[in-house]
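We close this part of the discussion by returning to an individual protein. Part of our work consisted of pairing the sequence of a single chain with a tokenised description of its backbone. What the numbers capture is local backbone geometry rather than side-chain detail. The amino acid sequence and the backbone structure tokens for this protein are reproduced below.
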Amino acid sequence: MRWVAFLLVMFPSIAWAITPCLNNPRVPRDYFVARLISEAKEHLTWQGLNAPPNDKYLFELFVSDEGSWTLILTGVDSLSCTIAAGHQWIPFAKGQ
């Protein structure tokens, strides 16, 4: 999971993923997370904070036992949106 955090923090090009998310309608984080848990059966697996000088974003990865995953972004306003989602999540042991 550390490689995901490394990519999000080290490469400013992540802005290409954030911009469409922030331009789309966003919903309160609590509502979003409740839907991921109840409907997608996903649980919180990872959190990372990106805090450049002007903006602060919380990235969260939710994963289900069946392999579905959702990466969400939450701003300081507590509104969230989906950055990416998919299937076939494969966990790795530490050090791989």
The CA atoms of residues 73 and 93 lie 25 Å apart. The chain has a mean pLDDT of 81. The chain is about 30% helix and 35% strand.
